[in-house]
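User: These chains co-purify. Model them together.
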Amino acid sequence: MSSLHGFTRDSVVALSAALAEPDWLLAKRLEAFTAFEQTPYPDTRSDEDWRRCDLRRIDFDALADIATPNGATASAVTAADDAVGTATFVDGTLVGSRLNAELAAQGVVLTSLHQALPSHGELIRTHFMTHCVQPGEGKFTLLHAAFFNQGLFCYVPRGVQVDGALLAQVELGGGSLLHHSLIIVDDGARLSLVEEYRSAADVTGLSVPITEIIAGRDAQVVYAGVQEWGPKVYEVGVKRVLAGPGAQVSLCTGNLGGKLSKEFIGAALAGSGSSVDLLGISFPAAGQHLDQTTVQDHRVANCHSNLRFLGAVGDKGRSVFRGVISVHPEAQQTDAYQKNENLLLGDKARADSMPVLEILADDVKCSHGASLSHLDNEIVFYLMSRGLPRGEAQRMMVAGFFEPVIEQVPVESVRARLQHAVAQRIDNLAASHGGLL
Amino acid sequence: MADMATLVIDDLHVSIGDKPILKGLSLTMKQGERHVLMGANGSGKSTLAYALMGHPSYDVTSGSVTLDGEDLLALEPNERAKLGLFLAFQNPKEIPGVSVSNFLRQAAQSVRGEKISLRDFSRSMSANMKQLDMKPEFARRYLNDGFSGGERKRCEMLQLLTLAPRIAILDETDSGLDIQMRQLVADVVLAQHERTGFLVVTHYEDVVQQMQPDYVHIMTDGRIQMTGGIELAERLTAEKSWDWVAEEA
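Assistant: Joint model of the two components:
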């Protein structure tokens, strides 16, 4: 892998040159870099968003090898063949993509940001880190805006319906990966897209991804992001949807891998009548710290958001959930719900759950709830009495714990991927505990 | 049937915590026989059921239980199930996220120790559900989640039909059911009685009449005090009390 070392101005310039970027993009990077340098890392003692997330565990300097395009191939990655289109990224480079010809003929695009620049430059310039996620939101969004790699660009033109799911696979071989996904679903269009993030077990790395989903008027979007990094990867990421009038969006995240992961997952309900489901599953095992902050940002009236995040926590694993419902003064007739449920698998499993309601309108319906539970021994006995060995009974219960969220994902192939990912986590956990959870 | 399974309970003592509940219970039953167990609340009927299945909270302090000579008490609940023992629960637990069909297929595979194709399984499941007058949608629902009392009991009967045990204990499966549902439970027992030995814990004489048991056992204070035929159940109904059992035992 060829790479640039260090989060420096020189690296910004060299990366932009290696990617043959237009001037405006280099200028945008440099502007972000200047602000990055002037912005301190979040104070994990005083900043509520970061209070339980120990950033000192991340050696940013050591991990600051930024991959540049180097002719890597997709040999290591096998693309699923049930998707109607796939794009595979290895260390920040698009190494292969394929799209159903009929969709391509209708103007659907599934490629890298940089390959799309010549044909869709204006669209990218309009939407790339401008109004969904902005560079200046914090230290890591600035870092991302200065050093982002060749990310995903997916566009579905007005009124085009994508049947079946598109799949983007993102693989990290080491160093820093700042994968950007810009997904634009135009007015009345429909899209289902899955992103999978993976690395080999022995890879040490830093991932600072941002996914921006722009859903136009009455657009229908199903997005699932499944993070299955190896155990030595650190991540600070943002996934956010900007929902236009009448848009219906289901944003599902599987936060499963990594050593320390801090994810900001949000929906900005910016168009009247929009509706967003935020679905989340997470499953930290021993030594993993998975930290999620969600924001249901109701900016206008008559919108609906429903969040359900489920977390199973293996022994010595740690999960943190902070769920914000923010209702702006003009966002009357808001319906917003939030539910976080945690299943602790072991005496040393720990889950923190903090709801935050910031409601500035008076005619709204909002509620939140959180729960903590353990595997119920009476249920284990019940299942065993039907012939299931103890370990299998427990696995069935943990898989079942996630099912109420997975079954809400409206696309069969996406559900199957999530179920598969959960099953693998359960297998791994069971394997390290002699078959029992 | 050539090799009729035999369950032998000999001088069984069971405690919950420090409290002795079963105080020397003995009972022998064979596959193909129908036994009814009646007794006052608190006499230990459910304790017997749970202890036989191997619930960890029920401490067997002495005595033995064998199924075809094999020591049941040394086995985990799933191993007992594999040997052909089944317990229909009085209050089966809700298991959100686990569908009835998925659960039943895995259970059937575990008990039989072999893979069952989805096609074969679906076919036999449909037939069993039809026998129990259950709608096909039921298979996709989460196990006992939001089920009515009657649906839970029906689901227990569906499990019984699916797993085809050699010995089945029905722990007041008929409690809280209307007369029509009680008839359904009795019908299952009658339909299965040739391949399964039943130990039916019940308070209802009508259920006893419908099942036509080979034996009726009356239990008080942790022991079987009296064994006879259907006339014992009739006498209970007539006496409306348990006092005569203690006097005559």
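Chain A touches chain B through 24 residues (CB under 8 Å).
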